[in-house]
Design goal:
5-stranded parallel beta sheet, about 20% strand
Amino acid sequence: MRQHIVKSAAIVGATLLVVAACGTNKGEENAAGGSCDTSKGTLTVGVVAPLSGNLSALGIGIKQSAELAVDEANKKCTVKGYKLAVSAQDDEANPAKGAQAATKLSTDPNVVGVVGTLNSSVAQTVQPILRDKKIPQVSPANTNPALTRGNDFLTAPKRQFDNYFRVCTTDDLQGPYAGNYLVEKAGKKKIAIITDGKTYGEGLAAELSKQVAKKGGTIVGSEKVGEKDTDFSGVIAKIKALNPEAVYYGGEYPVAGPLSKQMASAGLNVPLMGGDGIFDGKYIELGGKEGDLATSVGAPTESLATAKAFVDAYKAKFGKEDYAAYGAFSYDAANAIIGALAATLSSGDWADAKRPDMLTNVGKYSGSGATGEVKFDQYGDSTNKVLTVYQVTSGKWKDVQTGEFTG
């Protein structure tokens, strides 16, 4: 936690682009000023993300980036005969709310795919609902590896849901990547862990722990906090007594920011590090301090030539609002759905009978996106394994290392 009107390949992928011929029917105005044929009706791209609550900064970036992709597709007449629309549902970062959102979208016969979710715990309730209706789900942000490969993802991976895909890399790489940085680059051998007990944070911390041990470091202790806790004095006192050189937090920025601030106030003057769940400006606003660290998926958006047009277009459409950590990924997720839809409808009109073809075409999608190459492996995972370490420097996140986990 980015293309003015972009080249066609970046919108829908070099291998799947189907450009609709502009007809005589009145419809969306295309990029050349003509009119697209939308006589066959409107098809919907769903979004499930937290649009309210503590994580709404990330969710709104996901929603608006998907809207940008849909707007651009409409202007380019990408899906022949149809107009595209977005139906964004607020999951409030709550699994039960996510299930309600997925149920609502799944009852709409015009929903062709869903961008979401942000939280891995929410994905667990959304996946089976959309699977049962053969609706593709492409996440811009879920990083728990079990969502695609099962709990035995390291020793016996098995595809869990044939409708589920993601455009970001996973915590079995992100956790070890952070562990390597802490031990080898930052020189932190004694590390304490604090988690919020949720699927994302627990899985990420577990992977980091294994890598720290592999690199000769020590996990000196582990504690849990609640995602709604505000006073961390008890946990900090326990951790401080262990004399850690760094604290790793498995969770998200609403807790991580105040936790870091209270650590400093208690005299525990060591960096707090977390995963992509804390990589947002809100973390710093809430108390994240100088020297704190975070990993996030992909390379820094602003540094990617492939993302320049996305960034420009997003700013032109939404002004000063931030696309946040997953905006470029959401844009790419939406375009994977749109590209697959264009390929699916090259042989006929939309109907429920097209849903199996839609799933197949999402799995086969390959395109040049804002985040780089967008492509899926046999489990539905992204083939883009790039990660970045960021550090709070002069009150802002600054990237300090980008690459792939190498062991």
